[in-house]
Design goal:
This protein is mainly alpha-helical. Helices cover 83% and strands 0% of the residues. It folds into two domains: 172 residues, MFS general substrate transporter like domains (Growth Hormone, Chain: A, Up-down Bundle); 195 residues, Growth Hormone, Chain: A (Up-down Bundle). It is found in: Cell membrane. Keywords: Cell membrane, Membrane, Transmembrane, Transmembrane helix, Transport.
């Protein structure tokens, strides 16, 4: 399992390590805020388009080959900028990294599910989420240090080495998991499965959690600066958010496996915690910001392993890659929609109202999705 955890770390480090360093890294490559926005969007844009595609491919040819191919492609894309070091190659390398992560991220999730019995899915996804959160937490710090020491080329070189090492490790340590025989699936069958509550409920919860996390990381520093807090204090608040999310995930997974927590209760509580964090962000000063960071981190950490465990439990094993790719797409959409919603409201009415609107949305999700009429959600998830 350790190579799969390392793959999760790699995609998170690749996303945040570069994103946090681009703004001040190269005046030749990043000439305006528009260029910066484009470079930031390339990685996530590639993931939104390609994750479902590679997830389906993993079901067809096996998750391990897609995992290894993605890691090798990530190393190659990173290495291309190390060799070329030009603005054009920076765009190409960032696009290549996002496309490669689209391959090995859902494949790693599918392998976590296939290589663990259903009774241990909570613990497995909790551990996977923990190491992925470590990548998100350390990415900006390590990326900044590497850029300070040797520029963007050193950062991309470190990513190349990281992906190559994980690829070799996975090739040697991850067992081959052959694709399972499956019945023919029509487009109508796929639509029916992806619109079923067994898929929609955990995926919507994951998207909501990711939206709250993205807003916390992006806007809490803005709230801090508005009341005179310096970058050290606001950076510490973001670190509290990421660290809390990382620490809660293994506990959440173990509680699910032990029967101390149900999927339905955990997802609902996680969304309400994240909504409470956004409400706390409306309180001026450091106390409000730290409370917001801790609550959003707790909510995100609670939801992530439960959501993926529920998806694994309700999906036929031969369709795990497709389901994980589609669920990752939902998370990416939440990652984009949360900040856009808060920013749109903030432009008209102020940032506090932006927090309030997203908090309201997260509060309504359990009522509209998880507690919708029909069979209890726990019947779908197996917990």
């Amino acid at each position: 399992m350790w190579p799969l955890y390392a793959a999760g770390f790699t995609t998170a480090f690749g996303a945040h390590g570069v994103a946090a360093s681009l703004g001040g890294a190269s005046e030749d490559a990043v000439t305006s805020l528009l260029v910066l926005g484009g470079l930031l969007a390339l990685y996530d844009g590639a993931e939104v388009v390609l994750k479902p595609v590679f997830g389906t491919l993993a079901d067809r040819v096996g998750a391990k080959p897609v995992l290894l191919g993605g890691l090798i492609a990530f190393a190659a894309a990173s290495g291309s900028y190390v060799l070329a070091d030009s603005p054009g190659w920076l765009w190409a390398a960032r696009l290549g990294q996002g496309a490669a992560a689209s391959a090995f991220s859902p494949s790693a999730s599918a392998l976590v599910a296939r290589l663990n019995p259903a009774a241990k899915h909570g613990r497995a996804f909790g551990s996977y989420g923990f190491y992925k959160s470590i990548g998100y937490t350390l990415g900006p710090l390590l990326g900044g240090l590497l850029v300070w020491a040797g520029g963007l080329r050193l950062l991309f070189g470190a990513m190349m080495v990281c992906a190559a090492v994980v690829a070799v490790w996975a090739a040697l340590a991850v067992p081959a998991v052959p694709p399972l025989p499956k019945t023919r699936q029509t487009v109508a069958d796929l639509v029916r499965r992806l619109t079923d509550r067994a898929f929609l409920a955990p995926t919507t919860a994951l998207a909501g959690a990711t939206a709250a996390l993205s807003v916390g990381v992006g806007f809490l520093p803005v709230s801090g600066a508005a009341v005179g807090l310096g970058p050290v204090a606001t950076g510490a608040a973001v670190s509290v958010l990421a660290a809390t999310a990382a620490l809660v995930q293994p506990w959440s997974g173990r509680a699910l496996d032990a029967g101390r927590l149900t999927t339905r209760t955990g997802l609902g509580a996680g969304l309400l915690l994240a909504a409470s964090g956004l409400a706390a962000a409306m309180i001026p000063g450091l106390i409000g910001i730290l409370a917001a960071a801790a609550l959003i981190g707790c909510g995100t950490g609670l939801i992530t392993p439960l959501g993926f465990a529920a998806l694994a439990a309700s999906t036929p094993p031969e369709r795990l890659g497709q389901t994980m790719g589609a669920a990752e797409l939902g998370r990416e959409l939440g990652d984009a929609a949360g900040p856009l919603l808060v920013a749109s409201v903030a432009v008209v009415a102020g940032l506090s109202y932006g927090y309030a609107v997203l908090a309201l949305v997260l509060t309504l999700i359990p009522l509209l999705v998880i507690r919708a009429a029909g069979r209890p959600f726990s019947e779908y998830s197996g917990h």
